[in-house]
Design a protein that fits this description.
Elements lengths: L4 H4 L7 H6 L3 H14 L6 H12 L4 H11 L6 H11 L7 H42 L6 H49 L9 H18 L3 E8 L2 H8 L1 H18 L5 E6 L2 E7 L3 H17 L3 E2 L4 E2 L5 E7 L6 H17 L5 E3 L10
Parallel strand pairs: 6-7
Antiparallel strand pairs: 1-3, 1-6, 2-3, 4-5
Bound molecules: ligand C2E.
Amino acid sequence: MARSACWEDNTMPRDIQASLRSPKGYEVARHALDLMQAHQVWPTVRNFELWVNYVGEGASPLAAEIDRLLAAGEAITESLGEALAAQYLPEARLNGDILEAGDALSKELQSVTAAIESAQRSSEEYGQELATASERLGSEHAGPVKAVVEGLTNATRKVQGENAVLESQLAETTAELGRLRESLDQVRRDAMTDGLTNLTNRKAFDERLEQICERADAEGEAVTLAIIDIDHFKNFNDAWGHQIGDQVLRYVASVIGRLGATPRVAARYGGEEFAIIFPAESGRTAMAVLEEIRTEVSSRALKRRSTNEDLGAITVSAGYAERLAGESTMNLVERADAALYASKHAGRNRTTAATPVAAVAAA
Ligand code: C2E
């Protein structure tokens, strides 16, 4: 991928923190964010660090490797980002610091702005006193003293003017930093969200499940995983078309999102499949929530909004598995999936618990 020419010859220092703190730092960071968004790069701190290097360092082995991967259609996933960082940025010492740098800088800028404002106030008072003194001197004292006072008055006005310019430049920079952080947050949210349903997307779900299971192992907590599938969705789509199909997905997602709200993680797992992670919650709790979802979904009579036609009953099937100590996420998903299929085979519109017997607790 060709990078824009304005970055080719820039002389950004090698140290990336210095790079971010330099006057060009915001442009580098913004450009890196834009590229990450364009290439749908997972916005981890590590990836942000890689892309800031990519943008800010001109031609480098890291940039060449990223170009090669992008040209080959590879996605820069978190694990690939980790591998690239380990290989090309062994000296990097940023991690969380890179994001905190913006905050730290913002605070510094605010205190500098405050200092300038205070200096401005003092110099205004000083200027006022000089003007009064100059008037008091009157024309009969015209001469060297008055000339000195007037010289001081002019110098003070000049300093005031310079301070005002500096103050407005600092205010602009502070605002730009704020916008940059908002962009980063937005990129992060977009990359984690399913566009149609606004639930967590599959990629973020996989990450969260790993993290939650790791934490559960460390804290000795339970985790329950549920998978939910809309019954006969394909028939429904064929009968009513994709647009209505999408509305059904959004409707089911709205119920799942409400009952699976934080600290639970409600995700669109695939086409018409959804998943909920229940951190620190038992299978019994998950069962109660899933039954509530199932009942609520089927209780509403959906209408085709243009014609008011009844769209027929929407039902869902669900399966859940309570995690065994040390069980791999893959195994957990497989057991929840098997429970879901048991619900389907038993006639749909029901919730089934996974049996732990088939489980292989593998790391
Ligand atoms: P949406 O169409 O974007 O609607 C978002 C929210 O606006 C709905 O959330 C609901 O709170 C409100 N809303 C929109 N249209 C109406 C309406 O005609 N009457 C009422 N009382 N409220 C309305 P909700 O209920 O959670 O639905 C989420 C999504 O599920 C909707 O997004 C839509 O895509 C789908 N959906 C829900 N009910 C129906 C329906 O009866 N027919 C169709 N075609 N889609 C529906």
